[in-house]
Structure formats: C-alpha cells, structure tokens
Design brief:
- There is one protein chain.
- It contains eight helices and no strands.
- Helix 2 runs parallel beside helix 4.
- The chain has 180 residues and is mainly α.
- The protein has two domains: 25-105, no CATH class; 109-176, no CATH class.
C-alpha cells in the first residue's frame, strides 16, 4: 500500500502551471498606448507604429514580454535595447514620423495654408527649378521656427508670419501666372 502511495505521489505534478504565451504584437502595442496615458490621435498613431514594427520586424517573444511588463516610462526596462539595430532603426524612424505628424497638427492654419501654397507653387512650370528649391529650403527653415506654439503669444506671432508669407506666395504666384 505504501509503495502504491509513493508511486501515485511521484506521478502527480507538483510544479507550477506552464508559463502563459508571450504577448502578441497587438497586445504589446495596446500596452504601450496605455503607458502613454492619452487617448488622442497621436496615441493611436504610436500604438499603430508599435504594432506594425513588431509584426513586420518580427520582434522576439522576450522583447514583447519585456514591453508588456513595463509599468511606467519613468521606470523603463530598456526593452528597445533587445531589438536588433535594424529593428530599432525602423521603430525610431516610424516614431519620428508620428512625432512630425503630431507637430504638424499643432501648426496654425495660416502655416498649413502657406505650406500648401509652397507645394502648389513648386508644381508651377513658370517657376525656375532653382527658385523651387529655394522655396522649399525657405519653408524648411521657417518650419524650424514653428516651435513653442503652446504659448499663445508665440502662436499668434508664428500665425501672423505665416499669414504674411502665404499672402506673398499668392501674389508671387499670380504675377507669374501660376494657378494657386
């Protein structure tokens, strides 16, 4: 009887349950979004970046598990360091594009109009190629000053500058006979 009892005990598993499966890319991206603490378009874009990069770059299960185990950006687990150089580069590039899109949404409407006019003017065949390039370079330089827009005075100053630039672009386009 005693032998039977020992055999039965040996046959029983007293170990822990098998570990849960690693989080999916969808779950990983959703967790990153919750860490952002925002529910806006930018947060959705960041979530999409993580989901796409995870899926397309085939992030390893331990990377996904690391990200999901992160509880706060203030206490990072440095999961990104576990990605390959190429995977990190893809993620960084997509995050930079999402950040640029977020900044563009914050531009004053006259600045968006000015950018649109520059784009239209660049297609005008009456404008010399060198002038098109100078126009684009000027726009890029001007965009570098489109910062600090959370300050209402700065927002107004930038908006006024863009309004004046847009009006000058319209006049230039009209004088050249370009359709704007």
């Amino acid at each position: 009887m005693r032998v039977l009892f020992v055999v039965m005990l040996a046959a029983c598993r007293h170990g822990s349950a098998p570990p849960p499966p690693p989080p999916t890319c969808v779950e990983t991206a959703a967790h990153v979004r919750t860490l952002l603490g925002r529910e806006d378009q930018h947060a959705r874009e960041i979530q999409q970046v993580f989901q796409t990069r995870c899926r397309d770059d085939q992030w390893a299960p331990d990377v996904r598990a690391c990200m999901v185990s992160t509880q706060s950006f203030k206490d990072p687990k440095h999961c990104k360091a576990r990605l390959s150089i190429a995977q990190r580069s893809h993620l960084d590039a997509d995050l930079q594009a999402a950040a640029a899109a977020e900044r563009a949404r914050q531009y004053p409407p006259p600045c968006l109009l000015y950018q649109e006019l520059v784009d239209k003017m660049a297609t005008c065949d009456k404008l010399p190629p060198s002038a098109r390039e100078a126009m684009r370079t000027g726009l890029d330089a001007l965009k570098q000053n489109w910062t600090g827009l959370d300050d209402p005075r700065r927002y107004k100053d930038v908006s006024d500058a863009c309004k004046a630039a847009a009006e000058a672009m319209r006049q230039a386009g009209t004088s050249l006979g370009c359709a704007l």
